[in-house]
Amino acid sequence: MRSAKAVATLLAVLALCLGSCTDSGGPTSPDLGPGSIPTRSVAGTIALPDGAPADPATLEVLSFADRATVGAAGDFTVLVPDTDLPQIVLVLGEGTAPLLLGVVWPVEARALVVDATSTADALVLLNPFTLMFRSGDCAAVVEAARQKPEWTELADLIETLVTETATGRLDGTAEPGLFQLAASVTIEALGDFPGGLSPYADPWIEDATGDLIALTNPDPIFYAACLTPTSGGESLVAVAGSDREGVRVDLGWPPVVRKTAVTRTYVDLGDGTFDVTTTRGNLTSFDPATPEGIAGIMNASRGVVEVVALGSGTMVDRDALDLGLASMTGVTRLGSAARTRDAYKLTASVISLVSSERERVATWLWEKENQSCEDYLATLCPLLTETLFSTEVLAAGESRIPFFSRLISVGTLESHRISQVDGVMVYGGNHAPPDAAFDVSPSFAEPGAPVSFDASMVGLGERRRVGHSVEQHAVRGPQLRACGNARDRSPGEGPTSSRRHRRPRAERRRRRG
Questions:
Q1: Are 315 and 30 in contact, with CB atoms under 8 Å apart?
Q2: Distance CA 349, CA 119 (A)
């Protein structure tokens, strides 16, 4: 065993960005009323190992939605979120750490039994590399983990710990080896599936119907685009959203994150020439009056939701501005992790943020107070932290954690100049540095010998997006924020249709002539 204040005119912007930019990439979410995360009742039994000192009648079961007592025979009934993802329930004894963990699958074909085996399953599912997995893939990785030689050792260790104390031993400080063993089993299980590089692409701009342009985002993270007229005047900021239903995470070590559909934000631009800059936010500013702050708010709040979903299986769309990130304890750590491009540090910082601000996070997610949810987050977050730390120790340098690694790996994005005349958009180049490309001849030369340089292949750095596929999608345009003077503009709403990409310039000239 291993040892070891928010501006009122901005509300419409941010209220839409966690789900308004959609396409046909996946099922739509139900329209949830205030505080109405759907729940269902599950019945189960706690199976303590022989010799365990804990009295079942003194135990409690804690879920993301509810807290329930346990009968003398270990039986209980508890409310859980009605979710399409597996979720973890916590069995609490006399201590602060859980005694056992149970896994509630979307459809229970059999009675729920919480024991050492279910606890081992839960520790596998809590690994950060399973972030954004589909339910079926979660089941596959658990099944693969059960086939590993160390699986029996993991379950036996959990059973031993339960028999030694009634206070709970799922504590990384007391039992670091337990979490390292769980991380090792998970890594080995993920390794049974083909991994590979994640196929990411930066956002781009498309011509659309009439005066509309489309900010097209093929990335799992959010971007904010600032469009500034070169003739002077106010700038507009629009969020290029990311629909989670259009993101697929394939099993593997590391998991492969890819988009199965793009999201498009439609902007009613009008005629003129504009400079366009795009940012994903540096996670050091959460000021909704700036593009960097807007993007930071969207991405950090998505990170909070993803971390919570890792244990609770609950994904909800909430107004990111309502979370109040700028005033939350520990938010500055996000910027520090982003600057150093440390995916583990960023994930740990988000977990810490959820733990320290659990009351605010629970109220934000449920849109009302929920003490059980607060207690659940307080107990879950230490487990997530220990699992993350143990994985980092054993991952041999692998740091491509879904969502989080992409969020910090995006460099400075290009600045484009676009023009639109009579509803036809053209690129006028971009402001990116040139693409350096030159040959040196000879490749190796003695000091003082003549050397020839050929820089004829240096490019202007302009990236033309003309080869992307066209697909059906549903669009809803978000509100825009006018930078400088406080003025809002609303975009036109694009129909559900296939969008063509821009014509070559010669064809446009023929059309206008």
A1: no
A2: 25
Q: Parallel, antiparallel, or unpaired for β 112-114 and 98-104?
A: unpaired
283, 413, 258, 412: which is closest to 345 by C-alpha?
A: 283
pLDDT of residue 104: 96
Position 103, amino acid: V
Q: At what angle do helices 176-190 and 116-125 cross, to 10 degrees?
A: 70
- CA pair distance 231, 210, nearest whole angstrom: 21
Does the pLDDT of residue 459 top 70, yes or no? no
Residue with structure tokens 């059309």? 511
- Strand 112-114 to strand 39-46: parallel, antiparallel, or no bridges (unpaired)? parallel
- Cα distance between residue 260 and residue 433, in whole Å: 31
Q: Give pLDDT tens digits for 418-438.
A: 998 888 888 765 544 445 566
**CA trace torsion 106, 186, 131, 43 (10° rounding):** 20
Chain centroid, CA 416 distance in Å: 27
- Percentage of residues in the chain with pLDDT exceeding 70? 77
Q: What angle do CA 374, 169, 123 make, to 5 degrees?
A: 70
Nearest CA among 205, 265, 268, 326 for reference residue 474 = 265
Phi, psi torsion values for 197, nearest 5 degrees: -80, 145
| Distance (Å) of CA 62 to CA 65, 93, 99, 100, 243 | 8, 11, 11, 11, 30
72-83 pLDDT, tens per residue? Answer: 999 999 999 999
Letter for the amino acid at 259?
A: K
Helix (H) or strand (E) run with residue 421 in it = strand 415-421
Which tokens sit at 487?
């003025």
How far apart are the C-alpha atoms of 262 and 248, rounded to whole Å? 12
Dihedral pair phi/psi, residue 129, rounded to 5°: -75, -5
Helix crossing, 371-394 with 291-312: angle to 10°? 90
In angstroms, rounded to a whole number, what is the distance separating the alpha carbons of residues 381 and 87? 14
**Cβ contact 500:470 at 8 Å:** yes
Amino acid occupying residue 203: P
CA distance 205 to 504: 15
**pLDDT tens string 188-215:** 999 999 877 777 788 888 889 988 999 9
Bridge partners of residue 376, in order along the sequence: none
User: How far apart, in whole angstroms, are the C-alpha atoms of residue 206 and residue 428?
Assistant: 13
Under DSSP, the state recorded for 271 is S
Residue type at 170?
L
- Rounded-to-integer distance, Cα 253 and Cα 190, Å: 5
Give the CA distances from residue 339 to residues 191, 222, 329, 411, in Å, rounded to whole numbers and listed in that order. Answer: 30, 18, 19, 11
What is the enclosing helix (H) or strand (E) of 248? strand 247-250
Coil, strand or helix: which one is 249?
strand
Write out pLDDT tens, residues 24-70.
222 223 233 345 799 999 999 999 999 999 999 999 999 999 999 99
The tally of CA atoms less than 13 A away on the side-chain side of residue 121 is: 22
